Write the structure tokens for this entry.
Amino acid sequence: MSLKLASRLLLIFFVSLFYTSSYAQLKDELGAIHGNFQIDAANYQRDTIIGADPGKEVFRYNAFGNINYQKGGFSAGVRFESYNPPLLGYLPGYRGSGVPYRFARYQHKDIDITVGNFYEQFGSGITLRAYENRGLLYDNALDGMRVIFTPKKGIAIKGLVGKQRTYFSLSPGIVRGIDAEVNIMELFDSILGKSKTKVIIGGSYVSKYQQDQNPTLVLPENVATGAGRFTVLRGGFNFNAEYAYKANDPSYQNKYSYKDGHAIIASTSYGMDGFSIMLSGKMLDNMSFRSDRDAQNTIAMINYQPDFSKFHTYSLMAYYPYATQPNGEVGGTGEIQYKFKKGTLLGGKYGMDITINGSAYYALDTTGIAPINDTLNNYKYSTNYGSIGNEYYHDFNIEITKKLSKKLKFTLMYANQFLNQSIVQFNTPDKEEHPDITSHIGVLDVVWRYKTGSAIRIETQGFFGEYDYKEHAIDANGNKNITSNTGSWLSGLIEWTPNTHWSITVADQYNFINPDDTKKIHYYFGMIGYTNGPTRVSVSYGRQRQGIFCAGGVCRFVPASSGLSISISSSF
Amino acid sequence: MKKLLILSSAIILSLSAFTTSDGDKIPSANVKKLDGSATNSNTFKNDGKPMIISFWATWCKPCKKELDAINEEYAELVKETGVKLIAISIDDARSSGKVVTDVKVKGWTYEVYIDENQDFKRAMNVNNVPHTFLVNGDGEIVWSHNSYAEGDEEKLFENVRKLAKGEKLAH
């Protein structure tokens, strides 16, 4: 068939399709195409005062676009991504452009098949979680195939095989997994269907294969992990627990230890109108599981070791965040929420909300076992589960939210935090360079809705570090060498929303106490945002403090930067 | 050349017919109910009345502010328009245990689902939360809004009232 003929036929096809069908029918016949886009770009500048040096590549951006097609049970999609080079603070390996994500999926009655890329989670994620967080540039999508089979209401079986994304290519190991979940009440609907108590049990098995190319060690090429889980729900009561075991898996992360891994994760909560209580605890020992044993950072992580510590949204409370220690830890988080009803003494006319939250995490109590027979192949350690090691982190905080009138509302918050910074963030025992940080942090956030659709929000924060910096302020050569202790901070922010489309923010963070006088710096920041339906555009200018940014259990180091940023996101 | 032009314009015309965001049905994706049972987004229904679909997370302050602000007027709005709000939590394993307690303590009477694997979020092309959609009586997505600023709920209420009367929405 000649090109001319083909194009004519196509023309007839599209024109007839367009004119013979009504609009709605056409859409039903053709299916729907949707997508979303996001571009974050920055033009950095050198700012010696805060130590920001972008190098020669001053213009950087992160961009992606998803296009998805769906018709009935069939869907397919692609994602284009481009980073030339990525913004500061993201893994530099992402440099480049490409289509790292594409899939085709078909769902019909009891079967659901995906080929190409997909995301998946088994239970709490301790055996497998293929996950994306575009804002963090965390993406370990699997590339392979997945089948979800629902033979009967109440039973779901998932099976998958694939390789994980690593930047614009794939990690070397092959991941294979199976998961089954049974909802007892749904399965025995005729007998138990009316029961108010719901019981769900599940189990998963995941194994990885990676060739051993190590010249000195004999490494296991197949490594398996398995887990069992259990959930009970009744009204506002919820309990769930999961236990996981991992076979010996020497890796860069665990310093090539041949010890096996264990995890226990449990959580219970109760909620009713105006009151709730939640308790979560975990013990993780050597459960880091990657499809590339030599990988670092957030690359090629097969599983997810959950972090229950509070996810803070106020910047000074989030400045020394916690992240699950991949080699092991023990601890827990609890939270109580209470609502003082309208018309009570503390509740006043509009009620008052109070949240008390606490977390504490510790190292495991471990003892190293020296290699036997003069080889490195037996390096192990033993864990004494009866006791705990050094403190890693704690955070006790209380938050009060109260509406004073129809127009005025405030949030008052206090936190006491401790961070074993040298271990948690820098993986070194050097406490001179990275001292423990104990802090008291206060926040007052006031919103004044001065007329319908218009508001002014004023946020003030104070961070008071307890560390005795004088002792460490000057090293043997007389140099001031405090890099990780930043003293105390004050922060102020004003956000004006004149209408539902626009918002204008100005903010400043000031390092008002620092052992090094030259570091008593203002970090000013301004932003204008415009929102219209699904589209959001913002332009900002200012300084970004160096720090660790964590979300969804993943942290990344963000260097100090200064410059102009623009962000555009939309969907259709 | 002329034919190529006609051809491409025809393709663009037909594409535009099925890329318009107005009027598409809710895509199908697996989500979890608060009682742990599995369901699909294609079961979201409200007997010919409008629906609000709001993506949120327990760690997202603006999301909770928006849902709280809607909650203050919700009972009245339901009475007036018959609207139903479906709140989709995108909390992952770190915080999904908090969804039930947050909903209970806040006294929200919304229909809440957990999108733990973010399948529905991807199917609806949500980049960031909060992201709120309006679905008309025919089950078609006709409006959406990303982010929340104080007072945004007023616009949402206005649109819900219009939809309940069968009027068309402008962005």
Q: What stands out?
A: Residues 453 and 499 of chain A are 5 Å apart (CA to CA).
